[in-house]
Amino acid sequence: MKQKLNEILTNGLAEIEKSADLKELDEIRVKYLGKTGELTQILRGMKDVAPEDRREVGSLANSVRESLENGLSEKLANLENAKLMADMEKEKVDITEPSKGVKKGALHPLTRFNNKFMEICVEMGFSVIQGPEVETDYYNFEALNVPKNHPARDMQDTFFISDNILMRSQTSNMQVRAMEKMKPPFKIVCPGRVYRNDSDSSHSPIFNQFEALVIDENIGLKDLMLMIKEILRRLFGENVKMRVRPSYFPFTEPSIEIDATCQMCQGKGCSLCKGTGFSEVFGAGVVNPKVLEMSGIDSKKYSGFAFGPGIDRSVMVTNKIPNIKYLFRNDIRFLKQMR
Ligand code: DAH
């Protein structure tokens, strides 16, 4: 028995030493220490050993098992280490190779303009709100004093989804939604997409507007013009000039149209501003008392003013973009130039 154990030890250790990979090593483990392995069988047969020898044989068997286990784990570590080294050698990285460069993203020009405008409004105490692009006829038109069949509807070629549901043609819908929900006095601004059935180099069926609405006691045209002047100054710089023309919107009375120094030629006169040095920026006006009343605001106590700039035109002019469609195409070559 003792001799058998010594043989197992010598052979086992020799085989472990010779083994060249993890699979072979595992086979050796099974051969000696597995369920039906040579050493396991001897340990199982201990009951047949004469009682006086049992102690000695038992302790020898245990030390053989220990030696084999140690041998196996030592070899395992060696093999794993060798494999790691080989893998690392294969995956060697040449740190002197020039890099491909990290591509930097940038904000879309519309987003930049939007952020700038929002910042100005927030500094002036406006709350920013957002609302639905799929809207009812009521919020987009009727509550803004544009009843069905009103000729002012012709100015906005609207996409109707059904008789009463449409893609909002203006962010002015948010005036109504704000007046219904909020308690005066308040100032809100709503940036958002609007939709009209119109398409050429300066018109896109999707474009962007802001809607600003201020409701308070004793405010009127003078406050509106002062505020717009300050916004234009912050937006386009100290030297911007502003021009006001009378206009018509059913939801404001009086209604005005604001022009500002043409940002393409800085007022010198160019093809874009048709030599005038000015380009149109906003529609604005004092909120029609009828509109206040329809949304539940007491027009004897409160008054309001509103303005609604389209932003795409301004972004086109300030960035010298010849076609509005470029703003929506997501062409990376264009976006790169806009960084
Ligand atoms: N919603 C108008 C349009 O799309 C623009 C506008 C005009 C908005 C006057 C206003 C306003 O808030 O007071 O043509």
Please describe the structure with a list of short key phrases separated by commas or semicolons.
339 residues, alpha+beta, BirA Bifunctional Protein, domain 2, seven-stranded mixed beta sheet, two-stranded antiparallel ribbon, 12 helices, 42% helix, 19% strand, binds 3,4-dihydroxyphenylalanine
Q: How many domains, as an integer?
A: 2
Question: Assembly state here?
Answer: single chain
**Morphology call:** elongated
How many strands? Answer: 9
What does this structure look like?
The chain is of the alpha+beta class and 339 residues long. The chain folds into two domains: 89 residues; 229 residues, 2-Layer Sandwich (BirA Bifunctional Protein, domain 2). Helices cover 42% and strands 19% of the residues. The protein is built from twelve helices and nine strands. The protein has a seven-stranded mixed beta sheet with strand order 1-4-5-9-8-7-6, with helices on both faces. Strands 2-3 form a two-stranded antiparallel ribbon. A hairpin with a 2-residue loop joins strand 6 and strand 7. It is elongated, with a radius of gyration of 41 Å. 3,4-dihydroxyphenylalanine binds next to strand 8 and strand 9.
Brief write-up:
The protein is an alpha+beta fold and 339 residues long. The protein is built from twelve helices and nine strands.
